[in-house]
Protein: 15-cis-phytoene synthase
Amino acid sequence: MSLKLLWFVSSQSNLGFLHHGNRSLPCPNLLFQHRAGKGKNQRWKPHFCSLRTHVPGSEGLRRSKVKVTVMSTMAATSSAGEIAMSSEEKVYNVVLKQAALVNKQLRSPRGDVVVPGDLSLLNEAYDRCGEICAEYAKTFYLGTLLMTPERRRAIWAIYVWCRRTDELVDGPNAPHITPTALDRWEARLEDLFNGRPFDMLDAALANTVNKFPVNIQPFKDMIEGMRMDLRKSRYKNFDELYLYCYYVAGTVGLMSVPVMGIAPESLASTESVYNAALALGIANQLTNILRDVGEDAQRGRIYLPQDELAQEGLSDEDIFSGKVTDKWRNFMKKQIKRARMLFHEAEKGVKELNASSRWPVSASLMLYKQILDEIEANDYNNFTKRAYVSKAKKLIALPVAYVRSLVALSTIRSSHRN
Ligand SMILES: CC(C)=CCC/C(C)=C/CC/C(C)=C/CC/C(C)=C/COP(=O)(O)OP(=O)(O)O
Structure:
């Protein structure tokens, strides 16, 4: 088959990834063509193409053959005809900053911890974080037990802060939460990053952010996600939804990598590992959204791209009436495919993590990804049936993930030897 590849910068933004060797970069503002078919049947198709635009972090990749995976094509042109920055680009800029920061801080670590009280109080705070993590995220907690004690308790402290942030808009006090309350929560976050924690759980996080090259930006962005949730219940397109998913879940990936650590033997760039972590957060959130369509609709919320619903001939009423039709199945198939692509991106990064962090991440990835299989097994009825992974399947996933993480390690080692 002969392929004619054309490529140029366009006013469209293709949300996709560009793969080159062990690097994986998002590629905004690229349109490329693989001419399949003839005449009227000719179609735009994602395929191998060459790159002729500036993709952040792509230096050195110009004019080389790369593989591009496209997740969506959407207009990102302002009324004035300028190319607007897509959410993916904005988020990618955060990824670059985080990666640069980690590289810098690893070279010159911060000063010592400023936490009030003595060491035993701090230990108590970390233990409490562990208890909370064990209570609300059992499987993940078990996985963290494989990490070194220092990493494990840092992950618990991050988990607890995220949980408390989420509780603000999802917990029992949610109806009383105002943007001002979120502003106060953000001021408290800044205080703890400056070594002035408000309570003991904050003190555990203050200690963590001092020990590991964790940056405040993803934490602030998560609070921004909560603000977004307060003011918004519809998402025009995937670009808007992507930003929301970054805020509420992609950020968790960015917060975790500095603690989990990148394997010393890894050859991957820091950005590519951060990208994988971001992809995992977003894939998890999209899966969560697809699982909870019915529950969210009962609260008047639709976390689905409105333009893609319309393309399938679906409207809000179809979601509220909750009937599984062929239109709905088609829509869901596409959404599941996109989530799986993101899981696939994430998988590539897991093997670059420190050995002790690989297993818990791999296990939670497998378990979350299986929710998508369960939605399919429920014939896409996510209105009245909750897709869940059975205990038996969970038990199988754990050793499988463990073996995979060992295989990943030997693959990295042997590629070093060769
Ligand atoms: C892949 C690499 C390189 C690193 C891993 C980096 C990490 C840990 C990424 C994971 C990010 C993550 C856990 C995001 C949260 C996603 C999410 C939708 C959580 C849902 O939480 P709950 O609402 O408690 O879930 P359930 O409703 O399923 O209980």
